[in-house]
Amino acid sequence: MARPDSRAATALAFAESSEPPLLAIEGLRVAYGAVAAIRGVSLTVRAGEVVALLGANGAGKSTMLRAISGIVRPRAGHIRLAGQAIERLSPARIVRLGIGHCPEGRRIFGSLSVAENLRLGAATRVDRAGVAEDRERMLALFPILRERAQQPAGTLSGGEQQMLALARALMARPRLLLLDEPSLGLAPLLVQQIFRRLAELKAAGTTMLLVEQNIAVALDLADRAYVLRTGEIGLEGSAASLEADYERVAEAYLGARPNLEGRS
Amino acid sequence: MSPLLYITQQVINAVALGSLYALVAIGLSMVFGILRMANFAHGDMMMVGAFATLVLGALGLPFGWAVLAGIAAGALAGIIIERTAYRPVRNAPEVTLLLTSLAVTYILENLGILIFTSSPQNFPVPDWMNDAVQLAGGQITFTQINILTVILTGIALAGLGWFVTRTDLGLGMRAAAEDIGAAHLVGLDVNRLIVVAFAIASGFAGLAGILWAAQSGVVEPHMGFTPLLKAFVAAIIGGFGSIAGALLGGYLLGALEVFIVAFLPSEVSPYRDAIVFTLLIAFLLFRPNGLLSRAQEVKL
């Protein structure tokens, strides 16, 4: 794993490059009925970067990912993928344009076999040879899935299901991978295993936007991070700087503004 | 008559009736599986199929072609209803969908009355179809329509089985039935899957309507009502949302109805429907997910 200072340098290099970011969100607002979930969030993810989206329960992290995937419609704001506005497109179009979404709670198709789940991951693709090739890559990355290929996915353990969900999202060969709480409900050893795979994917150049409750593992993997607090960005910075300033991250999590007043 | 022959005869009757229930119940279950919607207008696809066959036959189309056209008319009606009535309210609360489907039922049945009046029309079939087939020296009899019903249902079910297990579209449909949100996330074109589900479901109902009319000899605008209720019972017994469950439920219900009349004292026969719906209540109370419950397979 990269040392903090080298990661800061990477983040800096990204910030200086002139091409449009892979994902650019501007002034995004999302509401469920009368309840505002996202209140004017802007963020960017550059190609090759891993960006973590942190925040307490209900801060709007999952809603951000659901808006990017077109599952919920924003009230205002723009979402651009490599410069193209995608906030009005259907979820299927958005997958086709290159955004893969590994959802919270895994959402694998439990009654279908592992192999069928992987096939569905490539639902938007027509290049059969490429799909077969990626399938082999996934089975090499997650050997347990090869053993269980013909089993109903619902019979897999939690960690195996998470691996399947990840592999299914990758089968679309996404330019940007959205990860929603990949550590959720997993034992620490399995969390380590999953994040080791994610680090491998990062090393291979996969761009990720990672929503996580587990701050430590998320900052360990990410180049940069944003902390969401009740629908707004409370804090942002390089993963190294946030890791070094754990206290401010915790404050942003808890929304502990009153305690800060004396200090600023 | 020997008991064995008598039982054989009743099994044949049960299979013929169960085939019709299964055809209707499968469509109900397919649509429910994806949209979580009890489609009351489903029974009216039977009427559409039967009337289309009747009209096209009267216009001189050979019966076989008229049947195919009737199935296509049922499928087309299902697609149109999905597009015009259900899709606009798909994200509304479930009760809205339910009431919309009731409204569609009333519109379709009144349209049927407007065009064909509410009195039953003769449903002419080729003479050979009414021929009796006799086995064991006339101790077992059934009509060619019974045979045709079983064969056509078998073809339809085999085709559906192939479609659902062997094609990408069928795989997508099973995925959408299990978790429509996740189906969106992997990039499946859910709208298209829903259209295909309605087309198959309504085509099956159209076929069931044609066979129903061929057996009873008449067709009328309300003909879909009773089979629809029975199909609901079948689908719930089998496990609402499961195609295999609807198939099983359809044949079980057909067998139950036939056997009640055949093997119980004749005083019980008039209570056949009461027994069937009591069974429904029992299932709803004690095994609401049905025999082949999908809910058990889904881990949340």
Architecture overview:
The complex is a heterodimer of chains A (264) and B (300). Chain A has 264 residues and is of the alpha/beta class. Helices cover 42% and strands 23% of the residues of chain A. Chain A has helices spanning 4-16, 61-68, 91-97, 114-121, 128-141, 143-147, 158-170, 188-203, 215-221, 239-244, 246-254, 257-260; strands at 23-32, 35-45, 50-55, 76-81, 84-85, 99-102, 176-180, 207-211, 224-229, 232-238. In chain A, α8 links the parallel β7 (176-180) and β8. In chain A, α4 (114-121) runs parallel beside α7 (158-170). With 300 residues, chain B is mainly α. In chain B, a hairpin with a 4-residue loop joins β2 and β3. The model of chain B is unreliable at 295-300 (pLDDT under 50). Classes of the chains: A alpha/beta (264), B mainly alpha (300). The A-B interface holds A 69-71, 91-92, 94-96, 101, 103, 105, 107-112, 116, 119-121, 123-124, 152, 154, 168-169, 172 and B 168, 171-172, 174-175, 178-179, 181-190, 294, 297-300.
List keywords for this structure.
heterodimer, A: 264 residues, six-stranded mixed beta sheet, 42% helix, globular, disordered C terminus, B: 300 residues, mainly alpha, two-stranded antiparallel sheet, 11 helices
Give the topology:
The complex is a heterodimer of chains A (264) and B (300).
Chain A: H1 4-16, E1 23-32, E2 35-45, E3 50-55, H2 61-68, E4 76-81, E5 84-85, H3 91-97, E6 99-102, H4 114-121, H5 128-141, H6 143-147, H7 158-170, E7 176-180, H8 188-203, E8 207-211, H9 215-221, E9 224-229, E10 232-238, H10 239-244, H11 246-254, H12 257-260
Parallel strand pairs in A: 3-8, 3-9, 6-7, 7-8
Antiparallel strand pairs in A: 1-2, 1-4, 4-5, 9-10
Chain B: H1 3-35, H2 44-58, H3 63-86, H4 94-116, E1 121-122, E2 132-135, E3 140-143, H5 144-166, H6 168-178, H7 180-185, H8 190-216, E4 218-219, H9 225-238, H10 243-263, H11 272-286
Antiparallel strand pairs in B: 1-4, 2-3
Helix pairs in contact in B: 1-5, 1-6, 1-8, 1-9, 1-10, 2-3, 2-8, 3-8, 5-6, 5-8, 6-8, 9-10, 9-11
